[in-house]
Amino acid sequence: MVSSTSLRSPPPPPSSAPIQRQRVSSSAAAASSSLSWRNALVPARDMAFPSRSSTRGRHSTMLRVTCNAQTVSATNLAPGTPVRPTSILVVGATGTLGRQVVRRALDEGYDVRCLVRPRPAPADFLRDWGATVVNGDLSKPETIPATLVGVHTIIDCATGRPEEPIRKVDWQGKVALIQCARAMGIQKYVFFSIHNCDQHPEVPLMEIKHCTEKYLQDSGLTYIIIRLCGFMQGLIGQYAVPILEEKSVWGTDAPTRIAYMDTQDVARLTFIAIRNEKINKKLLIFAGPRAWTTQEVITLCERLAGQDANVTTVPVSVLKFTRQLTRFFQWTNDVADRLAFSEVLSSDTVFSAPMTETYNLLGVDQKDIVSLEKYLQDYFTNILKKLKDLKAQSKQTDIYF
User: Fold this and answer.
1) Does the predicted model carry a pTM greater than 0.85?
2) What ranges does the record give for the region Disordered, renumbered to this chain (predicted)?
3) Strand spans (E) along 302-377
4) Taking phi first (over 0 means left), then psi (-120 to 50 degrees means alpha), and beta for anything else, what does residue 390 get?
């Protein structure tokens, strides 16, 4: 649950006045709820949010994202071709979670459409699987409506790229998507959020996730909000591969605990939730069987790999200092935003939750949820076998003179 990046100069701060919503079409706008968003200026002493505005006098002012939605009754639209419940749009389909959602949906017989930004390397693997790929960009609201035609359910797995300002996709883009979904009569909206996002308003991404939750709840759409703790897949590149390649593994000295979950399990539980009408308009938390510290994960990887890790520990105090330093420069604001997230993940925080009630609600047996030990054991068993086979093959092709 992390990331960090290359930079662009962020856009100038928006004004404090409400911003007029995009008009999708005259008929669609008439049928939509009155949704709006605004950036409010509040005194710095009232909040702990990274500054993006000018300082005047003794008290600086900071931009904070807030949202509101006033629903008005929709106009009855003329009857048309019914939308099949199996028609879904996956936003963020090329990501770690998104691709597992697409794979699961296709396996279960859904008609899957994937919203993908135009890119130099096309997402051909999605087409190869059997999904339909449509070009669209959340940062360009005019590209969204056409992608929603004939869609019953939106599954929103998207987040901004590391090099993008966090607000561009994760806030402005999501607001535009929710507005279009409401205007075009989307039947269900599934939104993936972050566990504990309501407890850390000082972290821009978590504040935006929480604000988007509230915006969606007030939009009039039928929704399911799923808060996630962490993905097991992310540990492969962060710990497993560097250990195997005898490279440095980066960790912190903080006792943060995260209940990692396999994204395949997240996708499976998501579709169970989508089919259960009792879960409509609910907020769920998905957490793995056990919460792990960074050191415990590294120790597990060392044992399974059969070799020691070269661990470089970054003190939390360094992260805090770096974040404070990057606040002083406009072009490093986004670095400060992402360091704030890393700082929370490096503090004495537990990203976990009891799952018994959720399992009962979904009708799932806890024994069917993959543990981190099993996930990493399967990975190391497979990768070490492949390395052994490659080594054997290389010996067979050796030529001696």
Assistant:
1) no
2) 1-25
3) 310-314, 350-351
4) alpha
